[in-house]
Amino acid sequence: MKDRAELVVDERLRAAVLLALSKDVDLAPLGLRVGVLNAIVHLCGSAPTPALWEHASRVAGDVPGVRAVVNRISAPGAPLPTRTIHLDLF
Asked: What is the total count of domains within the chain?
């Protein structure tokens, strides 16, 4: 079970990722859903293009403290949502 400090970190990361997505003119209208567990961001929702699918991963991954991004956004021509995990662990 996670301790309170880890929960706070994940909650803050989620808020930071949601803020970053909402500030992006292309991603804000998509209303993407965000979950964070152990500093790994999980993105869900739909995007109209593979370019926006990739852009969402980059924006989320650029938030300081994010360890990895699991992109489960569906988009035409993009990899299946259940198969794409971008891990950049140190």
From this structure: 1
Give residue 30's domain range.
4-87
Query: What is the secondary structure of the chain as a DSSP string?
Result: ---HHHHHHHHHHHHHHHHHHHHSTTTGGG--EEEEETTEEEEEEE-SSHHHHHHHHHHHHTSTT--EEEEEEE-TTSPPTTT-EEE---
User: What pTM was computed for the model?
Assistant: 0.83
> For the CA atoms of 75, 77, 78, 83, what is the dihedral angle to 10 degrees?
110
CA distance 86 to 24: 20
Residue 80 corresponds to which tokens in the numbers above? Answer: 């299946």
CATH number, domain with residue 63: 3.30.1340.30
Residue range 22-60, pLDDT digits in tens: 999 999 999 999 999 999 999 999 999 999 999 999 999
